[in-house]
Amino acid sequence: MSTTGVWVSDAESALGTRVLAQLGADASLEASTVDRCDVAIYIGGADPDARARRRESIAVGANAVFEQLQCARHLVVVSSAVVYGAWENNPVPLTEEAVLRPDNEFAYARQLAAVEQMADEWRRAKAERTVAVLRPVVSLAANGTSGLSRALAAGMGQRFAVDDPPTQFVHLDDVASAVTLAAERELDGVFNVAPDGSIPAVTVRALSGAAPRLQFPDRVAEVLASLSWRFQRGPIPPGMRSYTRSPWLVANDKLTAHGWRATVTNEQAYVEGTEAKWWTMVTPKRRQELALGAMAVGGAAVLVSVARFIRSVRRSRASR
């Protein structure tokens, strides 16, 4: 398929620029306007930070775009795997035929489900139209990771509980390649976007360099997490917590059958897309030096405290 007649929404976003680069196009592609394009790529829902800055609902923004797509024959919509919802009884892995059950408290997931419904209505309005809906898992990159993805990555595998579910992460470059494939081949249907396999919670904790901490019962941890979020001391808002506690792993068979392959593993995407704790980058030798330094400082502090105590005792005796 030629890139002539392609329109990309949010072309300046992290995903938009990657898609344009992989299509072999530049900003001139925008000359194909939304009301005249043959193929439209809607990635407005892929960047919740941008919508929040505009104070615009994802669903409202998508509806405005779809109404203008009168000439397009094919539409690619970037949704998210969060539309499946995270539930203890979820099948592992989730296929594209699974019923959508987003958490009621997670407005972003519910709005994406609404966008998918709008895209289906747009398809059914004309017989010759096709729609590819992509549902990537948590998308990460060294630059361009959304605040929502950072929050999910920060909360996954961090409860130190035996029932923490495994997780999946996909690199933003691989999401862009899936979008490009769906546009060029005009794929029709819903497609999960994720690397092969998943990461156990214990591995996520190791990769994050999480420091040891006390483990609380779930009821207590829930209250502490709510207070942390309220006072801006924690990364996970209430509606997203279920996505860090219950499984929502997806299968990628349908997309890989069309030739797509992730070039970055779950582990690599997580490491590149998250900030490592400072102590994970310290060499063993340096850790020993720091430990000895801390012991020296601690010893000096003890000596100072003892000296002050002795002086105070002497002064007390002298004043009698």
Please give a structural write-up.
It is a single chain. This protein is of the alpha/beta class and 320 residues long. The protein has 2 domains: 6-276, NAD(P)-binding Rossmann-like Domain (Rossmann fold, 3-Layer(aba) Sandwich); 282-320. Helix content is 42%, strand content 9%. It is built from 11 helices and 7 strands. The strands form 2 sheets. The chain has a 5-stranded parallel β-sheet, sandwiched between helices. A two-stranded parallel sheet has the order 5-6. Strand 3, helix 4 and strand 4 (130-136) form a beta-alpha-beta unit. The longest helix has 35 residues, at 284-318. The termini are far apart.
| Sheet with most strands | 5 strands, parallel
Structural class: alpha/beta
CATH superfamily of the largest domain: NAD(P)-binding Rossmann-like Domain
The strand count comes to 7
Q: Specify the helix fraction band.
A: 40-55%
* Proper CATH architecture of the largest domain: 3-Layer(aba) Sandwich
Give the C-level CATH assignment of the largest domain.
Answer: Alpha Beta
Number of domains: 2
H/E series = EHEHHEHEEHEHEHHHHH
CATH topology of the largest domain: Rossmann fold
- The average pLDDT score comes to 79
Percentage beta strand: 5-15%
Uncertain regions spanning at least 5 consecutive residues:
26-31, 277-282
Q: How many angstroms separate the termini?
A: 98 Å
Number of helices in the DSSP assignment: 11
| C-alpha geometry | elongated
Strand order of the largest sheet: 1-2-3-4-7
Assembly category: single chain
Q: What Rg do the Cα atoms give?
A: 25 Å
